[in-house]
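Entry 14. Two folds queued back to back today. First construct below, sequence then C-alpha cells.
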Amino acid sequence: MKKSLDVYLYGMTVLSTIHRLKGSYPEADSYQEIESTRIVPGGETGNAAILLARLGLHVRPEGPLLGTETRETILWFNRKWGVDSSRLKFDSRFEGWKDIVLVDGKHRNVFGWFAKRFSKEGGKKWSKPDAGEIRKAKVVSIDPYFGKESERAAGLCHKAGKPFVTLDCAPESDCHRYSAVNVISQEFIKRVFPRANAKKLMSRYLSHSKGLTLFTFGTQPIWYARPGKPTRKFKPYQVKVSGTLGAGDSFRAGMVYGLWRGWNDEECVRFSAGLAACVCRKFPVAQYPPTLPEVFRLTGQRA
C-alpha cells in the first residue's frame, strides 16, 4: 500500500440492508414483492471511500464506530477494494450503524435509527477527527453530521491549509465557510429551505465561502458557482438506470477526485456527473464501483 495519503474522509459509514423491489414502490396498505436483498457498506463516506479507492487513491476513512453487527462486512468490502480501515474503531458494546433501504430503480427510501444514535441518550458512537491524518492527506472529505466534531474537522483543515469537500451543511457553518467544495442536494434544500428561492439561496451560500458551491437537482441541471462569478449549469448524463442509490455520494466523491487531480471547476463537475451516472448503471455501489476508464469513456475526458 502506498505510504502517502491521498484522501482522509471523516464521515458516515453504515451497513445497509438493501431490498430491491420487483416493481414500483407500493402505496400504503398494499403489497410489493422483494426481488433481491444485498447487505453492503453505505453512507456518504462509506460509498465515497470505496469509489475513490477503486479510482486508484489511497483513502483512509474515520468516524462512526464499527459494531458487532457491522464490523466484519464493512472491513471485508474495504479490504476487497483497497480502502485503508486502520482509523476505523470498534466498540464491542455497540451493534453498529445500520439502515434499511427500499429501492425500485428510480426511487430509494431509507429507514434507520439515526435520530436515536445522534441523541444525547444514544451517546457519541463516533470518533474525533485526527489532526495528524488531516495534515498527511492531500485532500479531505468531511460529512457535517457529527456536530462539533465535524466543525472541528473543518477548522483543522483550515488551520493546516488542506482543501476539503463537504455536503449539505448550513451556509453559516464552518463546514461551508472553510470548504473548497460544498455539494448541496435537492433533498437537503427541500427539507431545510422548503420555501427558498434557489437563486437567492445560492447567493446566500456564496456570501459565506470563498470556495465552490454546487446545487444538485437529480436529473435536472447542476448549478455551480464561486463568489463574484455567474452561476453555471451542467446537464447530468442520461443513462439506463439500474438504481439511484448512492448517486449523490458518488457525485461528491467525484469532486474529491477532481480536487485531488487539480482540475478546474468544469472538469470536476463533468467527471463527478459521469461517476454518478456510472454508479446509477450498476447496483449497488459497494459491489460494482466503476473504474476510471469507464467514467472517462462516458465523459470524454482523458487520464
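Second construct, same run, same settings:
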Amino acid sequence: MRRSAGLTAISVLFGLAAVYLWTICALKLVAPEAISLMSGAQLMYGLELAGPYMALLVGTGWALIGWGLFRLHNWARWAAMLVMVVGIAWLVPKISIAELGVPVFWYGLQIALRAAAAWYLAQAPSVIDAFVGKSPTL
C-alpha cells in the first residue's frame, strides 16, 4: 500500500524534531553555555530539566516514532497520536495564561495543528488503508 503525502510529512516532522533535540544535546555537551536546554521545551514536555542526555533519549523516541510511521507500523501511529495528545495537554495551561495577541494565536495554532494531525492519523481513510493494507512485519 502507498503511504499518503500527509503521513510522509508527519513522519518527516517527527524526524526533524529528533534531529533538533539531538543538535541541542550535542551543543550542550560540547559547549555547555552555548545553548539552553529550554530550547527543546516544546518537544520534551518538562523533561528538558533532566539534562542533555534526556534530550538525546527523547530525540531518539521522536526518531523511532518517525521511522515507524514511515515504515507503516501501527504502533507508531498510536504512539504519534499519544504524543500529540500529550502535546495538546501541555499547551492548554500555556494558552490559558497567555496574553491576548500573538501568544494566544501561536499556542492556539500549535494546538490546532496537533489536533488535526492526530485526527488525520486516527480517521483519514488513506491512512487507515495504508496501515491495514500492510502486512504485519517488523
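Quick look at the second one. The two ends are 16 Å apart (CA to CA). The CA atoms of residues 2 and 130 lie 6 Å apart.
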